[in-house]
Amino acid sequence: GAGVSQSPSNKVTEKGKDVELRCDPISGHTALYWYRQSLGQGLEFLIYFQGNSAPDKSGLPSDRFSAERTGGSVSTLTIQRTQQEDSAVYLCASSLDRQFVMNTEAFFGQGTRLTVV
Amino acid sequence: AQKITQTQPGMFVQEKEAVTLDCTYDTSDPSYGLFWYKQPSSGEMIFLIYQGSYDQQNATEGRYSLNFQKARKSANLVISASQLGDSAMYFCAMREEGSSNTGKLIFGQGTTLQVKP
Prior knowledge:
A: mainly beta, B: four-stranded antiparallel sheet
């Protein structure tokens, strides 16, 4: 498809287990974002990949969270030893971010709803 | 420090009337972009409108316009002739150009708009 694809769409996991969330960005998009959204709340920035630059990890809430982006395309967000407070919708977005060009909108996936029981 | 502030958690508007959703931002970067997104109950994120910090005119897209007051650091979204389908959560977001090409997109907490018939 032409849009941002996330999998799985829903994930229920037991507290303490590790989970991996996947994001397939739009082909050719250099920038990829991960956000977390709790019910009825705003988007909490987690991590930002831009081309070959070092990722901006400033939003990761703890060292249990990590993300990688292989080959400048697919990204995986990993949460280790999940806690109940990790329950949220995890949104991925991609865009054609370029330096000095500000008007590139981000396109979002449908999100992964994570429930930790 | 909060970069994007949306002070209205919830708003009501009568169908066919206009409504203004507030957004203020904080940046010392002279080059930045401001975005508005709509999130219906289905959860998808829909890009509405963009305003660049150097743009001389307020952005408009159909029934959406952006009231950009640079000195006040505000970028309010105006929706004219509200429709029932406008009921959704609305997010203001900003990207700073920065000095190291790490211009991540940061979102406000959102405003829930309900359009009354």
